[in-house]
Amino acid sequence: MEQLASLAPYVLILPLCMFLILGLFGKKMCPKVSGILGTTVFGIVSVLCYYIAFKYFFSGDYQIGDTFQKVTLFNMEWLRMNQNLVISIGFLLDPLSAIMLIVISTVSLMVHIYSMGYMHGEGGFQRFYAILSLFSFAMLGLVVATNIFQMYIFWELVGVSSFLLISFYYFKHSAVRAAKKAFIVTRFADMFFLIGILILSYYTKTFDFGPLTQVTDGHVEIVNSTMSGVTLLGFPIISIAVFLIFLGGAGKSAMFPLHIWLPDAMEGPTPASALIHAATMVVAGVYLVARLFPIYSFEAPHVLEIIAYIGAFTSIFAAVIACAQTDIKRVLAFSTISQIAYMMVALGVSGYGGVDGLGYTASMWHLFTHAMFKALLFMAAGAIIHAVHSNEMDAMGNLRKKLPITHITFLIACLAIAGIPPFSGFFSKDEILVAAFETNKWVFAVEYFVAGLTAFYMFRLYYRIFWFGEPENGYEHEPHEAPLNMTFPLMFLAAVTVITGISWAFGKFSFTEFISSDYSSYEIHTHWNIALPSIGAGLVGILIATFLYLEKTGRPNKAVSYIKKPYIWAYNKFYIDEIYLYVTNNIIFQRICQPIAWFDRHIIDGFMNLLSWVTNKTSEETKEVQSGYVQQYAWVFIMGVITIVLLSINL
Amino acid sequence: MNILSLFVIIPLVMMAVIFCVNGEKKSLIRTIMSIGGFALLCTSAYLTIQFLELRQIDSTSEFLFTESAMWYERFNIHYSVGVDGISVAMLLLSSIVVITGVFVSYAMEEKVKEYFLWFLMLSIGVYGFFISLDLFTMFLFYEVALIPMYLLIGLWGSGKKEYSAMKLTLMLMGGSAFLMVGIFGIYYNSIPEGSEGTFNIQEIAANVQALKANGGDISWEYIFFPLTFVGFGVLGAMFPFHTWSPDGHASAPTAVSMLHAGVLMKLGGYGCFRVAMYLMPDAAQDLAWIFIILTGISVVYGAFSACVQNDLKYINAYSSVSHCGLVLFALLMMNKTAMTGAILQMVSHGLMTALFFALIGMIYGRTHTRDIREMGGLMKIMPILCVCYVIAGLASLGLPGLSGFVAEMTIFVGAFQHPDLFHRVFVILGCSSIVITAVYILRVVGKILMGPVQDKHHETLTDAVWYEKVAAFGLIAAIAAIGMAPLWLSNMIGGGIENIAKLFTYGL
């Protein structure tokens, strides 16, 4: 305990220092040095994270019976609002944060290594590593937050590092636009998050996750005792509060209709997409709901249901769009949205405690496996883009011989995401389907369909890149495999995907031992009655993709001609971006901001100018009286005297 | 001698020295200014440390370092000074802005001597205002601070400078007229029976409390509170009395904009709080709703207006309307947390906006335009200035780790503790400003700093020179220091707030 407590601060301090050092002095360093320095230091951070997680799970010091305990390794008062409300910066260790530490440190370390190759020779290499450090700091701080306000602080910090990474190529219009969009959309969601925090803390008088997630007798006592019975506009206030908090998470996790920023965010460098927009930051919303899960589960079950429906809709919506995109990074982006929605669904259909909490376990498990294989997919996509200098599918094809390592690892990741055993994705996806099946058949049906769709669009992507036939004009330069510092992370993550899957298959490893909704382990079995059909759905998807895209034929075009209208809609992402554009430009800017600015200049300021005009005019008019003619003055004087005399006589 | 008097004496000495120097020796004058500014900074830093130490020992007395000297016996006017946590914070802010303002003014070439003389006059007014405990001397310093503004803008400004200077001065003088009536109203009505009147703030506050406790007539508060609040509110850019701000800032020379937005506008908030609310708590409590509506409008209205401006200084001026609106808004929430947040916001906005105006001045000095449509891609050309600008923008939109976040969050959390639904609805409205702020900040950042280079002539421009770096880095360091370790400042301010907050129903 003491040992971990003394190590824990370094998990946050080291990346922060790295950010400051690289940010302030990066310019003076040679790029290579800054890259190696950043990677080495983050390597140390990863080791620390692994060590902490390992100790937590396996030393037995943190378990009572088979229940994991929440441990606060340190907690430092940062800002005191009043007697009750204190914002602290601390380190909370529980199964949830331990798992997240592993995910973040693994993916981030791989991205650090990968970027040495991918970003080689780019201007602003040091800046890239500085922001990467800032992001790692913020993300680690977010997951170990001891209170909801600490989470909000780091939540904003990951948002800004995402902004800085998307706008990395700041001289490109599209990158700047995408970065602005990402920041403003998530900021908009964060506003709801903040309001949610305000409402929650107003009643419970605490920010601390300790009491906020303490379950006693089927209730979160502090919430139940202060907020039950309070309603606003007919809705229970607690539901409003946690729904607003969920909206914050929905912004970061790109849930419909706040998903529009994520596809555009692909303008950033590919390693950044792999880290932020595939594996870590975008799952912050899922993490947020999981963190407050007892409140959702006991105090606001209806909100949980809404989350399930929003998740289900988002997953199918994004999957459909992914089928029609031609930019490989965008396919992956929509796939990410769809998969995160899957995790949300899992939380939405989950109950609390034991097997009821299967959805919770499955969600976290899917978060873990998805982070690994999706980061892998993005990095492989980066290697491909590196080789062919384009994001478009049309510029690719038949690359399997030219990029052998990328090919194999990409295939493994595709199989994993398509839910084919024994790869890791199969198991996590299967548990989500089981959980959905037990709770909500409609949601299950949607997710089942999405599973097939996922297999289809992923293999469409796979075949278009590695098979299908070379692009029409051939390749300008012969594509060649990426250097070792880029292929190593691919192989590493592929190994993780395979090993976790296989060890699960042989029963060596069960995720339910590590994480569950009430932190006590429980037993589950593979439900073959659901697993087999889901494998079937995946295989059907793959078969269709094989039929259409294995070789260059007229089949894809023919298939499209059958569904022309829907295809165009999906290709244009159902025009959601256009709706947003219309609302911001035509309504907010032209109907609100412009009139207000006009009102200010012409009415308010006009009134002030009118006052001065009136003053001027009055003095213009009255100055005639001061004519300077003595006769006139004398006449007025005498008449005045006479008037006064007459008046006083009368009185 | 009292350490507080140094804040008036040092600028006076500097004025005397500069007065004797030949106006052609510009670098000598600048050196004198830098040394003096540095001395002021040291004095306020020393004062802060001393204050914190003394607070440990003496936590009961409201003001520390008090001193009083009879000035005009007939009306019992004193030169009385003293500070609490709030004034110390404001003095620290003023010193930082003054010294950075001096560095920014290094580029000034015209009538340097006269410029700095007026500049010092302005700082005397500001410092004097913050240390005064006597209503009359406070008002005197207030006027001393306002008058130089007219000349500084009218002579050294740009654009429609005469119009702007006149407008700014007249509107602020209009506010002063209200204030004067308010101050005399307070003076005459707070005289307890059988004794003479006083201008001392602490004594007035005690008298008013005694009057209320004895069941005396306090209906006068309801006349003079609005007058005083509006009087100071004009300087605090409260809607609809804010229109001097965009024109005034747009025409003012860089350092004057900095000092004006950074410090002078804080006089408004400070006065609202120290005079209007402290001396007339009952009226403040009952009439707050009117001003909550007005300041609530300020917050959102300023932000929306800023979204469509094309002149960098206008954008920043409207953003100031929004941020300063938040200051008054938080004060009117009348509880300790929100009021602490208000003072934090004053400090934070002072530093941020000074940084903004400094950077805008530097960019304008190079590109000779402030129109955002005529600039683009400056990041490539002058990276240091632009990175500073991005940091200022991030501070302004409330990024954690920079001062804006601390202030805004304290305000929102504090204000939301009010049990009344009306207040909480307005807080939620205020929260929406964090999104709109992001919109206009990113609009500027995306337009002028990022993207391709717009104007080929800009490609040869140079990056910041040493004195510009000193100014920008100094302000950024202060912003980051507050943003990362806010606890001491918030505690120091909170200590001062308690004395006033306890007068209100939900104050503590």
Strand order in space, largest sheet of chain A: 1-2
**Biggest sheet overview of chain A:** 2 strands, antiparallel
Overall geometry of chain B: globular
**Termini of chain B, distance in Å?**
36 Å
- Oligomer type: heterodimer
Order of helices and strands of chain B: HHEEHHHHHHHHHHHHHHHHHH
Radius of gyration of chain A: 31 Å
**Helix count from the secondary structure assignment of chain B:** 20
In a few lines, what is going on in this structure?
The complex is a heterodimer of chains A (651) and B (508). Chain A has helices at 2-25, 31-58, 95-118, 125-143, 148-166, 173-204, 209-212, 221-227, 237-252, 261-264, 270-279, 284-291, 293-299, 301-324, 328-348, 358-388, 404-418, 424-439, 441-466, 484-505, 511-514, 528-549, 555-562, 564-571, 576-622, 630-650, and strands spanning 63-64, 67-68, 71-80, 86-93, 215-216, 219-220, 231-232, 235-236.
Your description of this structure?
The complex is a heterodimer of chains A (651) and B (508). Chain A has 651 residues and is mainly alpha-helical. Among the domains of chain A are: 326-332 and 349-571, no CATH class; 577-650. Chain A is built from 26 helices and eight strands. Chain A has helices at 2-25, 31-58, 95-118, 125-143, 148-166, 173-204, 209-212, 221-227, 237-252, 261-264, 270-279, 284-291, 293-299, 301-324, 328-348, 358-388, 404-418, 424-439, 441-466, 484-505, 511-514, 528-549, 555-562, 564-571, 576-622, 630-650; strands at residues 63-64, 67-68, 71-80, 86-93, 215-216, 219-220, 231-232, 235-236. In chain A, the strands form four sheets. A two-stranded antiparallel ribbon of chain A has the order 1-2. In chain A, strands 3-4 form a two-stranded antiparallel ribbon. A two-stranded antiparallel sheet of chain A has the order 5-6. In chain A, a hairpin with a 5-residue loop joins strand 3 (71-80) and strand 4. Chain A starts with a helix and ends with a helix. The mean pLDDT of chain A is 87. The mean pLDDT of chain B is 88. In chain B, helix 8 runs antiparallel to helix 10. Chain B starts with 5 loop residues before the first helix and ends in a 7-residue tail after the last helix. In chain B, strands 1-2 form a two-stranded antiparallel ribbon. Chain B has one domain. At the A-B interface, strand 3, helix 5, helix 6 and helix 25 of A face helix 6, helix 11, helix 16, helix 17 and helix 18 of B.
